[in-house]
Specification:
The protein is of the alpha/beta class and about 240 residues long. The protein has one domain: Phosphatidylinositol (PI) phosphodiesterase (TIM Barrel). About 35% of the residues lie in helices and about 20% in strands. It is built from 9 helices and 9 strands. Strands 1-2-4-5-6-7-8-9 form an 8-stranded parallel β-barrel, surrounded by 7 helices. Helix 4 links the parallel strand 4 and strand 5.
Length: about 240
Amino acid sequence: MQVIGHRGASAGAPENTMAAFTRALDLGADGFEFDVQLTSDGRAVVMHDAMLERTTNGNGPVFEASFDEIRELDAGGWFAPEFAGERVPSLDEVLALPATVFELEFKTQGRTVLDAVLEAVDQAGVFERVKFTGWNHPMLARLKTEHPQATIGLFAQRPQPWMNEAVFERYILGTAETAGFDVAHVYAGVLTERIASGLSELGYVVHANDAVGPDDVNRAVDAGATSISLNDVALAMSVFE
């Protein structure tokens, strides 16, 4: 099973920073998940939120700040004093790391971000190692149409309170059947063997996302997932050992 650090090894380092990504790889992860936003001057940077406040000492929307302005911000001090001075990484920097898998999530919409990401991926020469994901399914479908060789990840919602297991299973498999993507992301805590086997029959790679604790890791293994993402990379490695 491939282990993917969610926003890097974000249990032990500030999310979406080079410190978190290198920590994930050092712990033995195959790769990491990260989020992409665009600056006001069209540079692709790695940050989860559309706003700067939560994970930097800046404020306002990412898309209203230039790349140089964002690079001046502290992206690590909020997490712990020893990470003060960590910078918001550019997409180029992240794609230069020696990961087996880059799980790239689009956090903004539009043609501009799609083109910026594709240019960066092409220049880094890592197209075959990138899994493109996000909640904007129409944009991902456009990407798949224009680049059929692209590996596209389909996100599934958590089950709603009114859903029983059969209804949730039908929702997952029905969505996957019509999406025409390559990887199905199902929350580790609700993944079942029936869902995983159904997705495999449809030709999907099964990814258990957002695992929390050893029970979720073991559940993903038992269900038949082939990759898993979580904040605590060290936990996953210890469970597998």
